Amino acid sequence: MSPDHLYDDADRERIVPEPPKRVDAPVRTAFERDRARVVHAAASRRLAAKTQVVGPQTDDFVRNRLTHSLEVAQVARDLARALGCHPDLAETAALAHDLGHPPFGHNGERILAELSHDAGGFEGNAQTLRLLARLEAKTFDGRDRSVGLNLTRATLDACTKYPWSRSEAPEPGGVHADGTPRFVVKFGVYDDDREVFDWLRAPAPGRGKCIEAQVMDLADDVAYSVHDVEDGIVAGRFQLTALDTDALWHTVRSWYLPDAADAELDAALAGMRAIGSWATAPYEGTRRGLAALKNLTSDLIGRFCGSVQEATFAQGDGPWVRHGGDLVVPRQTEVEISVLKGIAAHYVMQADDRVALMARQRELVADLFTTMLERGPDALDRPFVDDWEAAGDDAARVRVVVDQIASLTDASAESRHRALTTS
């Protein structure tokens, strides 16, 4: 049975009211229309050329931000259906969750946050809201302002992973891939996007995430924990049959679970090793090896989602829609996911060659930022030229430059850098 009846008119409301489509057009629900708008957005296409863990130009097999988002969407849709919330809402949020990421992934996010610190900062999730509600233009309001894709309130809320501003954000923790402390705070809205944020959050209780956003968030964790390990194995970075747990547990604690004891981490790894599809021989790149690896990823995703579904249903009867409840992630599942993320972090993200590449990428983004800020409209695409001319102060101009850089892919950032620094 469709969960449509569990969502009301306020959930389907848009900032700019839209008349029904012509009678000969396919009949779609409001949430189906939202999904289609995200799929067709230019920002979605650009994800194909943005780094996930390993750069998209390095190998035909590894994930990029687009393939990762498609996999997150599949996990989110299945989990939402099992829980009884709207699959279209969870899937759209998953498809949109990385739209705001700049070139070079979290590495690009880090340097943009540093460069724009005094002008409101940068955060990929806040940039996603900015894209959906402003930059990815489809609809304009009565004051001739872009309202982005004009998505429904429920969809925008489902896309809000961190429903608070920078000033309200908790202190960051953990380390970056080069071992330096994290200082980028996680938040979901810039100060000058507060109007749309307050509108989409109007019926929401405090800082709580809606259940559809929680599904998206968990699906993201599940997908990248499993798939980053798969990519690392295929890339020859490590073998599941030869893990150095002493060093690995240090990474897991530094990055994800500072309170996890060796015994708890050992038990989590032992539990996953007991899965029938866990590797018992080194991966050698054969078709049989690829099939075994794919079976393991499927089993791990099913294990994690199944445990969350069971624990969530155990807390009550629901319905699990909007702000009517919370996902329950068992501690064992949290630790197992963290162990997998730690494997990828230790063997891939902290590898010497990648750390050196990341330093060069940060230099490139910093050069772009400085050059664009100095040259202004001459260095910007036309939509951002208009934003620059409308900017009222230096902070607003910094935001325009950040919006421009964040819109670039890895390859276009490099080509734009060459063009601006050699002209």
Description:
The protein has about 425 residues and is mainly α. The protein has three domains: about 5-200, Hypothetical protein af1432 (Orthogonal Bundle); about 210-355, no CATH class; about 355-420, no CATH class. The protein has 18 helices and no strands. The chain has helices at about 10, 30-40, 40-45, 65-85, 85-95, 105-115, 125-135, 155-160, 195-200, 210-235, 245-255, 260-275, 285-315, 330-350, 350-375, 380-390, 395-405, 410-420. The protein is globular.
Can you tell me the residue ranges where pLDDT is under 50 for at least 5 consecutive residues? none
Strand content: under 5%
How does the overall form come out from the CA principal axes?
globular
Which class of secondary structure composition applies to the elements? mainly alpha
CATH architecture of the largest domain: Orthogonal Bundle
Residue share in helix: 55-70%
Major β-sheet, in short?
Answer: none
- Listing every helix as H and every strand as E from the N terminus to the C terminus, the arrangement reads HHHHHHHHHHHHHHHHHH
Helices, by number, come to 18
Distance between the termini: 61 Å
